[in-house]
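S1.2 Input.
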Amino acid sequence: MSDKTRISLSVSGALLKEFDALSRNLGHPDRSKAISEAMREVLSTRRWDLAKKGEVPGVILVTYDHHSRGVNRALTELQHDYPDVVMATMHIHLSKHTCLEVIAFRGEAERVRSLGKTLHSQKGVLDLKLITSKA
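S1.3 Output.
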């Protein structure tokens, strides 16, 4: 008997199309294998980030729809709420509607995680990557 569990999930058609194309290019034999690999990658990365303690340096990459009401102000205010963590930011225009904010940080790991979670929960945020480095 297999130890596999059948699941069901809902995603946008555009996301599924993009995921399927990427998984084919990576040589995955089927969608289940691709999703399993993606889940392992997320678990590995997030487990590592959550285990960090003490002061950590790094960057947060926030991709957002700048036409989303209030997102610009919310992102700026949040950065000002974490003066002990946020060191610098860079704003990049990716397209007519999409921007990338690069936030350089150095601070206590728990404060960094709090900032990342709060930024990610903002309306209009499309993607967030928190990348830490060795001190």
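S1.4 Remarks. The first helix runs from residue 13 to 25.
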